[in-house]
Design goal:
The chain is α/β, with parallel strands linked by helices. It has ten helices and 20 strands. It has a seven-stranded mixed sheet, sandwiched between helices. Strands 10-2-1-14-20 form a five-stranded parallel sheet, with helices on one face. Strands 5-9-6 form a three-stranded antiparallel sheet. Helix 1 packs parallel to helix 6, helix 1 runs parallel beside helix 10 and helix 2 packs across helix 10. It is globular, with a radius of gyration of 22 Å.
């Protein structure tokens, strides 16, 4: 194939382009928006006077595709990797604080240590947790565990964050896939990994620099409005500047959101139900707050906020599976969440009435709903519509939920498909069985 067009410059598209240029292929990357990165990017917010991320993403040392991506883009100096595993939490109703601290090895002796596990939990609950990693059927997360302290104070927050779907509807097998590569590998695979500055600085800008250094063409503000299909292959792209014909050996990676993909490819079956994510940013310097000192983030239970992250000059709060809140007035939501931040960070009570400048960002279609019905609609990377077309995105069948790890992995799989279509070995989920256990 002489030239490959990658449509969409989110992490899936960037990962595909990296693999293709790394194999010596000529690549043109088309992005409809003014910046690359998709849901994982940073921008300057004029109202706050700060550079913020459009969302918060917690990566772990067990995310092998993420680690490989950082290595290829020489971006390890752009992220902070904690030297041990720790997940801090606070119950804002009771004020109780704890941290889950898995030991480095795979034998989970940490569950025997009261100071490392969730307070008030029983060993039988951890046996239930471990069984989730072996689920292969259509049971939900809520089906697989009793509603004890472990569920409420660890598994439910992790499931909501990883699957962006209420546990009563979320597929346990997708959570199990995450657990097999992180928690079940031991604490060495659970070390938090966060950007030092922003998502663009860590995950987007270094990738673009590598791609341009390899001769790739990056076209921002260039929407592909049509894929011309004839004779079982893509023969042309129609962009904002007109028709782009493809030679016989050219190919396309389509790495766009599912609703864009189905518009470009009539007849494509893809997820069509989505869950929102809300991020609330407060201009407040939390660099000295003890609650965030160890990891830079804290999980919240019994509140509206779910995760609080320390950023440069501000704190950022994430609420996943947020369809229930997405139509609430932004000011009221910010006020409620600020109260949770005050409690989570242990700020003086008077701070509750001194809410700093804020910004609410609502992503109504952040990810596909991780239900059995929607998971069944995830297409394989190889599109039957055209033999020179591969699909990429966290909504493609990767065996993982819609995560950064899944997005990068899908881009790599799409590239492998086009580079060596006859030698790629696929599992039932369309993913190649070469996953690494950690960094």
């Amino acid at each position: 194939m002489s030239h490959i067009h990658v449509v969409g410059a989110g992490l899936a598209g960037l990962a595909a382009a990296l693999s293709l240029t790394g194999a010596g292929r000529a690549v043109t990357l088309h992005e409809a928006g003014p910046a690359a990165g998709g849901r994982c990017r940073s921008y300057f917010d004029r109202e706050l006077g700060l550079r913020i991320d459009n969302g918060n993403h917690l990566m772990l040392s067990g995310n092998g595709a993420v680690c490989g991506y950082l290595s290829e883009t020489d971006a390890w100096d752009r992220v902070s990797l904690l030297d041990h595993a720790a997940l801090p939490f606070v119950d804002v109703r009771t004020g109780e604080r704890w941290a889950v601290r898995p030991n480095a090895g795979r034998v989970p002796w940490w569950v025997l240590h009261p100071g490392r596990r969730v307070p008030g939990t029983r060993l039988a609950e951890y046996a239930q947790m471990a069984r989730i990693a072996r689920v292969r059927d259509g049971r939900t997360v809520a089906d697989c565990m009793s509603r004890g302290q472990l569920y409420q104070r660890l598994m439910e927050p992790i499931a909501v964050a990883a699957l962006n779907t209420p546990p009563e509807a979320a597929l346990a097998r997708l959570l199990g896939a995450v657990m097999r590569e992180t928690l079940m590998q031991g604490g060495a695979a659970c070390r938090p990994l966060l950007p030092k500055e922003g998502l663009s600085e860590a995950l987007v800008d270094p990738a673009l620099a590598v791609l341009r250094g390899r001769g790739a063409t990056v076209r921002l503000n260039h929407r592909i409005a049509e894929l011309v299909v004839a004779g079982g292959r893509i023969t042309a792209l129609r962009g904002s500047g007109g028709l782009i014909p493809l030679e016989q050996d050219d190919a396309v990676v389509l790495a766009v959101p599912p609703w864009v993909a189905t518009a470009l490819l009539p007849g494509l079956v893809a997820p069509d139900a989505f869950e929102a994510i809300m991020n609330i940013h407060f201009r407040f310097d939390a660099s000295a707050e003890a609650a965030l000192r160890e990891t830079g983030f804290i999980g919240v239970t019994s509140g509206t906020a779910e995760w609080v992250f320390r950023k440069q000059g501000h704190v950022s709060v994430t609420i996943s599976a947020a369809n229930r809140l997405v139509d609430e007035a932004a000011a009221a939501l910010a006020g409620t969440v600020w109260g949770d931040v005050v409690d989570a960070l242990g700020l003086h009570g008077r701070m509750r009435q001194q809410m700093p400048p804020w910004r609410v960002v609502k992503e109504k279609r952040a990810t596909f709903a991780a239900t059995a019905e929607q998971d069944a609609k995830r297409p394989r990377p190889q599109a039957e519509i055209a033999r020179n077309l591969a699909l990429a995105g966290d909504w493609v069948a990767t065996g993982l939920p819609a995560t950064i790890e899944g997005a990068i992995r899908s881009g790599r799989a799409a590239a492998r498909l086009l580079l060596s279509p006859h030698s790629m070995t696929e599992g039932r989920d369309g993913s190649r069985r070469d996953h690494r256990a950690g960094c």
